[in-house]
Amino acid sequence: MPEFTIGRRELYILPTRIGWYFTLILIALFAIAVKFDNQAAFMMLFILASISMVAMLYTHNNVIGIGLSSRPSHSVFLGETALFPIRVHNQSQTKRNSVWLVCDGFHQLLELPETVEKEVELELPTVRRGYLNCSPITLTSHYPIGVFFCWTKRYMPSQRCLVYPQALDLVPRPMIDDFSSDNEHEATKPNVSAEDYSGMKPYQPGDRLRDIHWPSLAKSQKLVTIQHETHSSTAVNLSWFSLPKSLSTEDKLSQLCFWVIDAQKQQMSFQLEMPNHTIEYDQGNTHFHKCLTVLALWD
Amino acid sequence: MPTPPPAHALGRRTLLLLSSTILVAVLAHYAIASPYIASLALLVWCLKTGLIITNKKNPPIIVIMLFTVLSILMILWFYGGWNGQKAGISFLVLLVTLKFLESATLRDYFVICLLLLFVASASFLFHNTLTTILIVSAFVVVVLALLFIISSPTKLPFSASIKQSFNLIARALPLAVLLFFLFPRIQGNFGFIPSQDRLDSNRELSNSLVAGEFANQAFNDRLAFRAEFDGSPPVKSRLYWRSKVMTEESFFSWKVQAPSATELRLAKLRKRSPNELRNNQQEPIRYSIVHENSADQYLPYLDYAYAPEVGIQLDDHSVFKDQTTNGIFAYRGASYDSPTVVEGLPINRAKLLTTRSTPKARTSALLGKWRRETRDPRQLVQLAFDYFKNNDFEYTLDPAELIENPLDEFLFDTREGYCEHYASAFTTLMRWQGVPARIVVGYLGGETNSVGNFVEVKYLDAHAWSEVWIDGAWHRVDPTAAANQTRIEHGMEAFLNIWEQGELANGRDGTALADFLDPSGLRRALNTIKQSWGNLGYQWNKWVVNYDFNAQKELLAQLGFESRNTVYTLVILMSVGLLSMMLFYFWQLIPKAARLGESQQAFLRFLQKFKRHDLFKSLSESPNEFGVRAAIAFPEQALEIRDITDRYSQIRYGKENSNIDSFKSAVKQFKLKPTKYKDQSIEPDAENKKMKNITDDFYVAGQLTENDFPELAKSGIKTIINNRPDGEEAGQLESSEARQLAEKHGMDYHYLPMVGGQPLPPMLVDDFKSTLDESQRPVLAHCRSGWRSSFLWSMGQIAAGNISADDAIKAAGNAGIPLEQARATLEAQQS
Amino acid sequence: MSERKIDSLLDQLNEIILGNPLATKLSAICLLARGHLLIEDIPGVGKTTLSHALATLFGLPFKRVQFTSDLLPTDIIGMTIYDVDTKKFKFKKGPMFTSTLLADEINRATPKTQSALLQAMEEQQVSIEGQQIALPDPFFVIATQNPLEQSGTFPLPESQLDRFLMRISLGYPDSEFERQLLKNEHGKNTDYQSVFEPGEVTQLIAQVGEVHVSDAIIDYLQSLLAQTRSSGQFVNGLSPRAGLQWLQAARALAFIERRDSVMPEDIKLLAQYTAAHRLHCNDGSDASTALNTIIDQTEIL
Question: Does domain B676-830 have CATH number 3.90.190.10?
Answer without folding.
Answer: yes
